[in-house]
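Progress against Task 2.4 (sequence-to-structure conversion) is shown through the following example record, which the project officer requested during the mid-term review.
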Amino acid sequence: MNRICPRCKTVYSYASKECPNGCNKKTRKEANKIYDKTQRKNQDFYSSKEWKRLREACKNKYSGLCIWTLYKHKRIVKGKIAHHIVPLEVNEELGLKLYNLLYVSDEAHREIHTLIQMCSKDNFALLNESLLEEIQDYKTKWFDNDEGVGI
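Structure tokens generated for the chain above:
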């Protein structure tokens, strides 16, 4: 059986799962761009020069690797997102502090936010504290053991 790409109308096998022309990635990228421009909270913050410089510094600090996946799942994956450990909604002052950022992949970022969303209000503080400890442990491992080693 075959499927038809809704974007470019290419016919391809169900086995390949994605359009051979890369339409899935293009569509996702366009959707993210639209989201960033229209629905994202703190648009001014994320489009500022300071944030862009800090995001690049975070990427360089962790050599472009996803630290969460490296230590939690024992896999080497490129990071894509500078994740605020303490969210902007909780403490806006930490928004432009490098020590409050962790460089993660899309999958790890979703995993972290899923963990946060799954908890109830009763155990939120406990989960958040354990998550912060886990992230701090990964950062410590990176700086004490692996930084500059070229894993």
